[in-house]
Design a protein that fits this description.
197 residues, Vanadium-containing Chloroperoxidase, domain 1, mainly alpha
C-alpha cells in the first residue's frame, strides 16, 4: 500500500470525535515535552556510569536530528496540507515532513538505550511512545506514514554513529561530568550517593 493510501486510512475523518482528537493532539503536541524533565530526573538519580550513558544517548538524538535535517534538505517531501490531502487538525509549518523530528527523538533515544546496560529497559517504552506520537501526527494530518517510518533508519544511524564516537568522546564526557561535579559543589549541594544494587 502506498504512502497516500496509508495516510488516507489513518488520517482522522472530518467528523472525528472530540475525544480521539484530544488524545491525538496530546500525543502529537505535548508528549515530547515530558522527555526533558524525565531525563533531568534520571540524570539526577544516576551515578557517573549512568550519566555517561545519558550523554551517549543524547548525542545519538542530536546526530539523528542532524541526519534528518540533511535528508529533508536533500530530498524535501511536502506535508499532506501542501498537497491538499486529508484533514488537518493541528497547525504546522510548511517545512518538509520526512523524517518526523518528533518520532526521531523518541526512537533515537530508544535505539541508543538498547545497547546500554543501565537503560536498555527504556527501549521498548520509548519505541511505543514514538509509535504513538507518529500515529497521532498522521491521524491529525501533519505527516505521511512514510515520514514516521523514515525516522527509524535515521534514528538507527544516529545511534550507530554515537556508539562509534564513544571512545573518542570519552575525554569530553569526563570533562562534562567533572564540570557537573564542580557546579553541584559551587551550588552548595552534595552529589547523591549512587543507587544501591
Amino acid at each position: 500500500m502506498g504512502n497516500v493510501q496509508l495516510f488516507e486510512l489513518i488520517n482522522a475523518p472530518a467528523s472525528a470525535g472530540a475525544l480521539p482528537l484530544a488524545v491525538a493532539t496530546g500525543a502529537a503536541r505535548w508528549l515530547i515535552w515530558a522527555l526533558p524533565p524525565a531525563i533531568v530526573l534520571a540524570w539526577l538519580r544516576a551515578d557517573d556510569a549512568g550519566r555517561r550513558e545519558w550523554l551517549q544517548m543524547l548525542l545519538a538524538v542530536l546526530i539523528a536530528l542532524g541526519i534528518g535535517q540533511v535528508v529533508g534538505f536533500a530530498w524535501p517531501q511536502p506535508r499532506p496540507a501542501a498537497l491538499h490531502l486529508g484533514h488537518q487538525f493541528l497547525r504546522h509549518s510548511a517545512d518538509p515532513g520526512l523524517p518526523s523530528d518528533h518520532v526521531t527523538v523518541f526512537w533515537s533515544l530508544a535505539l541508543a538505550s538498547l545497547s546500554r546496560r543501565r537503560h536498555g529497559v527504556l527501549c521498548f517504552l520509548l519505541l511505543a511512545l514514538g509509535g504513538l506520537v507518529g500515529w497521532s501526527r498522521v491521524y491529525l494530518g501533519i505527516h505521511f506514514p512514510y515520514d514516521v517510518a523514515a525516522a527509524l533508519p535515521v534514528s538507527a544511524a544516529g545511534g550507530a554513529l554515537a556508539m562509534a564516537l564513544r571512545r573518542p568522546l570519552a575525554p569530553v564526557w569526563d570533562a562534562v561530568l567533572q564540570g557537573y561535579d564542580r557546579l553541584v559543589r559551587a551550588a552548595g549541594g552534595a552529589r547523591p550517593p549512587p543507587p544501591g544494587p
